[in-house]
């Protein structure tokens, strides 16, 4: 049952995942979820895209979480992504100063999402990327992928994940530059141009 | 063609038999549902057909995914974990206390991390604009809670017993009563969104979502235990539900955890 006996390691087994369902919209999204970058920061980028299913139909009920390092490659330890107002119980939005590195965005009715965050820096041998987690009705276990930014061909070529992928699949992980620090990153859950999804072991 | 409960029952049975056969043939115990689970129709066009690309985290302790975002006192308010106190009046329904421990695969408590819940009201209706189930909304119940786990990884919510609700995937489809949970671990790889159920719900065999967890023991881990010691005298019924996060973490940060 669901009282886990931690003195018996063989009883410590994972709790299964379930779909986020269609009715999380009054619970999980929060004001400022997409505005991750501190206000006016010069290294701010905009990442945006569409989430589509196996027939190319946009998902109006997908939830995206982004998590990434600051421009120096350091992972933030600041809390305050969803600062709250103790008086009303509502969301205050971020403080505009600290960088928490984490954001949460619900796709709109046309399946589109955007986020403004800081340009991630490289960590170790990896090319700079944002970690992306996708939730949706119909998705029994969430999906991980990565948004790599184009530009530094040498860094991308040396990236341990990208180096192991065929070109067509690799390209699904690299956002398209649209100028002025704006990048497009579409997520295709199934079928033609299916995004590369990751599992960690 | 009308999709009936009988059709879904047969598909669920076939999926279960296929899993039993995989086990008999030496396959691994499957703790997680498969993303491709047709009895839950919404999964059909929303699961990747390509297998996921595996990343061996032991080769790179610097991976972004081995760290987790931080949450703190300013991300919650004092009454966020009491869903019965968020409005001027009392919500309708049987009050319950839900508590348990958030653990990693080594049985260690996950401390100071964010737990979010959401649920239908006691009549089985969500406070969500798109939900059109013809059951009453409760002006005194939104059905959203948040808390941070304590130093033992414990969480505790006060809420009302959610009602079961119909959904339209097939004729007479009903979801067993459940509370949705969203959880963070010490690594982003441990992220979990799931649902907690209540003991002995007669709807379990009919529901393709809980049945998507085809392993019987794994499915049982989604069901809370009635816990009389958690019941609050003259106030609420107690349910205990421990949660174990899957997914690797950075082993080298064990010190000081
Ligand atoms: Fe639900």
TrEMBL record, chain A:
Source organism superkingdom: Bacteria
Domain called Intradiol ring-cleavage dioxygenases: residue spans: 43-124
Protein's UniProt name: Protocatechuate 3,4-dioxygenase subunit alpha
Family that this chain belongs to: Belongs to the intradiol ring-cleavage dioxygenase family.
Protein species of origin: Streptomyces cahuitamycinicus
PANTHER family: DIOXYGENASE, PUTATIVE (AFU_ORTHOLOGUE AFUA_2G02910)-RELATED, PROTOCATECHUATE 3,4-DIOXYGENASE ALPHA CHAIN
Molecular-function annotations in GO: ferric iron binding; protocatechuate 3,4-dioxygenase activity
Pfam families for this protein: Dioxygenase_C (PF00775)
From TrEMBL, chain B:
UniProt domain Intradiol ring-cleavage dioxygenases: residue ranges: 98-126
InterPro entries: Intradiol_dOase_C, Intradiol_dOase_core, Intradiol_RC_Dioxygenase, PCDO_beta_N, Protocat_dOase_b
A Gene Ontology molecular function term of the record: protocatechuate 3,4-dioxygenase activity
Gene3D superfamilies per record: Aromatic compound dioxygenase (2.60.130.10)
Keywords: Dioxygenase, Oxidoreductase
Signal peptide (from-to): none
Keyword hit for DNA-binding: no
Pfam families registered for this protein in UniProt: Dioxygenase_C (PF00775), PCDO_beta_N (PF12391)
GO terms, biological process: 3,4-dihydroxybenzoate catabolic process
Presence of the UniProt keyword Oxidoreductase in the record: yes
Family to which the UniProt record says this protein belongs: Belongs to the intradiol ring-cleavage dioxygenase family.
Name by which UniProt lists this protein: Protocatechuate 3,4-dioxygenase subunit beta
Organism the protein comes from: Streptomyces cahuitamycinicus
Protein's gene: pcaH
